[in-house]
Amino acid sequence: MQREYPSQALVGVGALIVENGRVALIKRGKAPLLGEWSIPGGLLELGETTRQGAEREALEETGLVVRATELLGVFDRIVPEGKRTLYHYVLIDFLCEVVSGELRASGDAADARWFTRAEIARLTLPEDTREVIESALSKCL
Predict the structure, then answer these.
(1) What is the phi/psi pair of residue 25, to 5°?
(2) Is the pTM above the cut of 0.90?
(3) 73-95 pLDDT, tens per residue?
């Protein structure tokens, strides 16, 4: 599947994993957003539900077995380049609870760690990402 200059939008799923007032983020090991902190997630695979996709991606990137619970939002991530579209994702984010495992970077993630609200405030994040993280943290208080 062609991610750069796609012929159609790609469906991505995200796992907002919250535990003890902190959220798990990964440092992206691939474009887009290479080297930036992000919500664990990736492309939905053929034949899986969006919740299954979020749970799979969480395991692949964080080593955590999670259960996707509440839908937090659906977002467009469109990155133009000149007159063309470099990336176009429809992102579906779920609140997730940890079932088992220890947080560790794996798969496409270069790093993984828990962040508090104060630490998140210091990160450079897209506004919709910041808002969905805040929503997830607020629901788990």
Answers:
(1) -125, 155
(2) yes
(3) 999 999 999 999 998 999 999 99
